[in-house]
Amino acid sequence: MEYVSTRGTAPTLDFEGATLAGLASDGGLYVPREWPRFDAAEIAAMRGLPYAKLAARIMQPFVGESLTLDRLEALCETAYGRFSHDAVTPLVQLDGQNWLMELFHGPTLAFKDVALQLLGLLFEEFLARSDRNLTIVGATSGDTGSAAIDAVAGRAKVDIFMLHPKGRVSDVQRRQMTTVLAPNVHNLALEGASFDDCQAIVKRMFNDRAMTDRFAIGAVNSINWARLMAQVVYYFATALQLGAPDREVAFSVPTGNFGDVFAGYVAQQMGLPIARLIVATNVNDILYRALAFGDYSQGTVTATASPSMDIQVSSNFERLLFDLGGRDGLALSAQMAGFEATKAMQLTNAQREGAAGLFTSCRADADQMAHAIRWAWEHCGELIDPHTACALHAARVAGLDPAVPIVTLATAHAAKFPEAVERATGQRPGLPSRVGDLFEREERCVGLTGTYDAVAGFVAERATPKAG
């Protein structure tokens, strides 16, 4: 499998190269040259496979010759052996049509663990083959940071620098990052910054020759293809349990950066019968406006009770626009350059029409989010977090055929956002026992001004150069 950049001019890489590179050198994102596809019989044959075996089977076409199937399966066994539920991503029924896919049984209680536990092992596997060191630079609006740090803490040949907007993540999210004291972990809280500001600094560093000539800069955000690849698996796992390939399934996905829902698009391209992907946003609704009206224009980030969705530039949306626009990298490069210059962009007719066949979108405000949390508790006995609630609201107003099951992706444990859940239900969710001492642990974090020079200088002083 070869990987090409969405902007058309970066070198083509294999899976190992794309995993270690993260962002392409032309500023684009790597995608497979073509989508592998399973027919109905092949999908049906996957029924009943344990999660790790299913994961290896689905990901193997993307991995190509970078790993044998046996080795990929062994890495999956290790990654998912750390989850607290043997099903890894279990299903819970809410009513006759609505289901929850619980993605929070990993070590940091969020869906990012499903991909990042594997990505940490892939980094270690590939770095062991060479004398290079990897400098991971990432931005987080909450969950990516803790999951990535847990996945690579203490691993050889890896340093991680995680940027978060100071005061804009929950206390649990912050502590899950800052209480990891491994020497290769560096948490940076940026003053006066939004997630979009943090992400812009990360992207700039990938294109700063002074940094990339000296350090091998890698990514754990969903700009890294390997992360999205691992997320494709749970769409298959869930759909198979609900009758695929003989029955269509819809998914409602809370998203800001478009990575999790793009994984659903990939699953559909691979042959999974998905009736609809519902893109759920909070009031930071650039994706809703883009999909509903073709208006991809950056607004001001509003802080909400669902901070992982407080985003106004959705990095992974570029992958969808590339695919729907005929995979014309040069045309997309010009389109994205216009957006970066003006902070506004209209989708082309081809992009709008292509998206309309699979995607709908729904925006949830604070009251609608709280109502969804309350409904899940009062009618189903389930405590859900604010991000999941935005998607559950979208699922319940989607108006789909009642015969089509709608699976809402439960992306974080309710205990990561106890105040919002308690306001809506009167119930304060407790942390699982495996992380119950979180608020007693020592924290370590560095505060910086939210400027590129401050971050780049900090990284340059502490990172390990490419060759040890």
UniProtKB/TrEMBL annotation:
Its cofactor is pyridoxal 5'-phosphate. Residues 87-326 form the Tryptophan synthase beta chain-like PALP domain. Belongs to the threonine synthase family. This is Threonine synthase. It is an enzyme of class 4 (lyase). It comes from the Bacteria. Its EC number is 4.2.3.1. Keywords: Amino-acid biosynthesis, Lyase, Pyridoxal phosphate, Threonine biosynthesis. The modification N6-(pyridoxal phosphate)lysine is found at residue 112. It catalyses: O-phospho-L-homoserine + H2O = L-threonine + phosphate. GO terms for molecular function: pyridoxal phosphate binding; threonine synthase activity. GO terms for biological process: threonine biosynthetic process.
